[in-house]
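Write out the 3D structure for:
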Amino acid sequence: MTGLRHRALLYEGVDEFLAAALPFVRDGVCAGDPVIAVAHTRNVEALREELGDDAAAVDLRDSADWYHSPGTSFAGFIGFAAAHPDASCIRMVGEPIWPVEWSAGVAEYAHYESVFNAVAKDAPVWAMCPYAVDALPDVVLDHAAATHPELETCDGVHTSTGYVDPDAYCTHLASRASAPGIRVRRFDIEGDLASLRAVVAAEAWSAGVSRKRIPELLLAVHEIAMNAITHGGGHAVARTWQEPRAFVCEIEDHGPGLSELYAGYVPPSDDSDRGRGLWLARQLCEIVEVQSREGTTRVRVHLRRG
């Protein structure tokens, strides 16, 4: 392979899943390709059973143990590819657990699918992403068509006529970021990050964020705020508020801006200090949203409440 193949599998029921995923995985095993398959419990167990002895050659994972956030799952697949630098083809099956009750979460998983086309475009990766058409809402299926150049159904493989260039699609997703919630608290950041962390910790605890998650939140906020004041002329603004399912902290600055496509999704190189903050934030928080345009950059981190 000379570059990425990224396909959405639109299926209904375990039998349709197996009809497409089993030969995809088994052909990879027969060819000696590294293969990872992450799928919903019933699908991954059916795949394991049908593979028989070949299952030992596949990294089989349950989606519930893999898809904690777009950032962690993205890092997992990138790490799997990086662990096989000499492979001529790396096969991946990835079936997210779409947080259909959480619009920001759905949009960020769509971002995750779209940016994969850009970050992995030159990698020898063949990826199949299953979508259960009988269980997912239309908005998620629309995202599937927009973020995968190929679609597979029981009728075969087709070019996705709804596919959108990743840069344009992630700009579209960033434009849909919701307005701040109720009871927004605003405070200026001039360099005293200890005070910022104290305020955010108190607000998060009051909002019902688990105590054991608060240090992760504070590390993410610290890294984002440090980037904001470093590149934003020494000044930034923080806002916090509650949403029905999450506590949100937003950092705003007026620096040179960020890529709404790539920010936090490009693994930082070992010899660079740039890019680590947002990458780390995506590993620590459920959702990270970036909106950067017209001289203003806003980075929002979301942690589930409760």
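The first strand starts at residue 5 and ends at 11.
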